[in-house]
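User: Hey, my collaborator sent me this sequence without any context and asked if I could get a structure. I don't really work with proteins. Can you help?
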Amino acid sequence: MLILNQRTQQLATDSVALAYDERKRSRLKVTLASGAEAGIFLERGDHLHGGDKLAAEDGSAVVEILAAPEKLIEAIADSPLLFARAAYHLGNRHVPVQILPTENGGKLRFQTDHVLAEMVRGLGCSVSDAEAPFQPESGAYGGGHHHGDESATDLHNPGHGPHRSVPKIHEFKPR
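Assistant: No problem. I've predicted the 3D structure and written it out in structure-token form, which is a compact way to encode the shape of the chain:
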């Protein structure tokens, strides 16, 4: 069995399609497109995204991670205000959401949940079932997606791009 535990930018020699919930796991046994068995071993909290590549520990293969199509809810807002309201209410519930642009407002995809579907429908969005790869936003702090030796906790290199900083834990002292 191949051991996949190193991120790489090399050309892929194989692939595996994984649903969002599988891509969030740090330990996973998979069957590659070629039929070979492989084990994915990542640092706890590290998530995979469609397009990521993992190298085998022995250097014999590079596997591209594909976002597998899955059943989702698609909410379409016909104005920027409605889009913002729907995104706010889903985010307030910590729902993983994929954001897609449309000509007038925006489209939100999230995992199937009839209560959330009714909520965004009640706000005024048109709601439908969809089957598509799910690539939700990683969140305000990056969601554990790291490359190579980068570290989100390195205070001298706090993140990608300007104005990124490491979240601070405030210590409150008793009075």
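In plain terms: Residues 23 and 49 are 7 Å apart (CA to CA). You can pass these tokens on to your collaborator as they are.
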